[in-house]
Amino acid sequence: MEKLKKKLEPETSQSQIDNSKVEALASASKAQTLKEEGNKFFQKRDFEAAMLRYTEAIKLLPKDHVEVSHIQSNMASCYMHSEPGEYTKAIYECDLALSITPDHTKALLKRARCYEVLNKLDLALRDVCMVSKLDPNNPMASEIAEKLRKTLESKGLRVNDDSVIELSPDYVEPIEVSPVLWAEELKERGKKNKKSKQVLEKNNNLESEKGKEKIIDKQSKKKVKGKQEEKVIIEDKSIRDVKFVYSEDIRIAELPLNCTLFQLREVVHERFPNLRAVHIKYKDQEGDLVTITTDEELRMSEVSAERSLETKRFYVMEVSPDQDPFYGRLVEMKKLKTTADSFKTKVNGKGKCKIEDWMVEFARLFKIKANVDFHTCLNLQELGMKMNSEAMEEVVTSDEAQGPFDRAAQQFQEVAARSLLKLGNVYMTRARKRLSLLRGGSEQVEAAYQCAQRDQMKAKEMYQEAMRIKPNLFEVLMALGLQQFEEARLSWYYVIVRHLDLKTWPYETVVQLYRSAERNIKRAMEGLKNQASPTDEAAKLKKSWLDVLSCALLYERSIMEYKLDLPTSQENLEAAVKMFGSEVSHGRDNTDI
């Protein structure tokens, strides 16, 4: 038993592996179908239905599957095009896509557009630079980068060739001002209209130069000290000190008030650069460590910290990367930080990469004329099929198209007729196989006769349908004549084998079959004569075959008529001999026929 178990265990494990592979392939196929359905709903601008299909597709795939990143990117497009646009959710979907595929250029471009709408131009420029690094020939990235540079320059900032944002060269760092000058400034401003402190700090350089020679008393110094202390207090209220505890390592950092969870995660990444994925926790009133997963939970931790006078503590726990939702984004930002400084695209070694204005205008004109949404990626296949259909509608309704259509219809008719002809030939071959059974007993002869007759009737139906589709096809006429001839001969042989009474046997049906066969063979000869050229050897061979078939038909008919004592038997026999003699006199070898 133990040996049998050992033999069965590998087979069982192998079958389990095969079953898992089959299930994975089935899930991937179903997910692809759901994705295509979502794409169709997206084209119809039914974004809710599209996102529902995308969500179902994601559930069927592994978390790290490449196709998941593409679906997340499509979901970001749905959020971007919804009314009103939910750009924050779109950014989150792009983050998920990039956590799986960091070099997903479409997700980077979509996130850059979202950052641009949210006026986070530095982040938008960062994503665009990453796309240009991955795909230097991407025209969309170059266009957005140029647009962002112009916007930043209009705000007094400058973007160098390495896509690093710098201050304008006209910007002057404000010099430090003594408390005495601050007092004089406050006095003069107080006499006018007591403007805000921000305006005083902005213009203190200009006013300080005018007040250097003035006499300042001790009372003004006290006022300035009071103002400075008030300013320091205001600044302290916007930033607070916190402690990050990782095992026995405790580090202090400054954290802005009402920060987001991602900002907190960035600070942890800066303070502990060697850590990869982490969870951030805090102690609640009961002393339990609670994991912070949302901004609302972060606010709750701040409320609990305000009740105690101690410095707020956050506890850092290292986890696997799939448990940290911000890990992929931080890794990407680290890559961008290292690559953005070295990014520099030049044309022929001089100047920066730039799209010509006429190319941009042409692209916009094309989008307008083609009625394409500006903010969606072009599906060139569907667009091409649509434009091709519209062009086809104009072409097929023109007078010039009717001639080719007629020729095409004739070709299709001939193809259909020849297909039916071959199917009829199959039935005729089966019927001929039955003839070998006519030499057996009575029951066997009866069964063979019924089967052969049934196959011949099916062949006749196929030939008649082919002749209805293509009446002037001589091969069909020839096959129909041969079928009628063999049907008549089968009926006659059946009478001979079964020794039926010839005086009471209704022979008129068989005679009519011979006549119909002879008529169809003559029509086939006429069609062959009209279609073939005189020098065509294949046509000559077919003509000889039809002549021999006519001889055989007349000969078989004359035999039947002789047995029935009909007066036309001698006439048909002489016609058969004459026709066969004509074939022999022409020197044709008809043995193969």
The strand order across the widest sheet is: 4-3-7-5-6
Number of strands: 9
N- to C-terminal distance: 72 Å
Strand percentage lies at: 5-15%
Mean pLDDT: 75
Radius of gyration: 47 Å
Uncertain stretches? 171-182, 192-236, 343-352
Biggest pleated sheet: 5 strands, mixed
Helix/strand structural class: alpha+beta
Alpha plus pi helix count: 22
Structural domains: how many: 5
How would you name the oligomeric state of the polypeptide chains in this document? single chain
Fraction of residues in H or I helices: 55-70%
- Principal-axes shape call: elongated
Describe the structure.
There is one protein chain. The chain is an alpha+beta fold and 593 residues long. The protein has five domains: 23-167, Alpha Horseshoe (Serine Threonine Protein Phosphatase 5, Tetratricopeptide repeat); 179-237, no CATH class; 239-324, Roll (Ubiquitin-like (UB roll)), CATH 3.10.20; 357-397, no CATH class; 420-585. It is 67% helix and 8% strand. The protein is built from 22 helices and nine strands. It has helices at residues 2-43, 47-60, 66-81, 87-100, 105-117, 121-134, 139-154, 179-192, 197-202, 204-210, 218-238, 261-271, 295-306, 327-340, 357-369, 380-396, 402-435, 442-469, 474-498, 508-531, 537-563, 569-585; strands at residues 157-159, 165-167, 239-246, 249-256, 277-283, 289-291, 312-319, 346-347, 350-352. Strand 1 and strand 2 (165-167) form a beta hairpin. The radius of gyration is 47 Å and the shape is elongated. The two termini are 72 Å apart. Residues 171-182, 192-236 and 343-352 have low confidence and may be disordered. Residues 239-319 form the PB1 domain. TPR repeats lie at residues 31-64. This is PB1 domain-containing protein. Residues 1-22 are annotated as: Disordered.
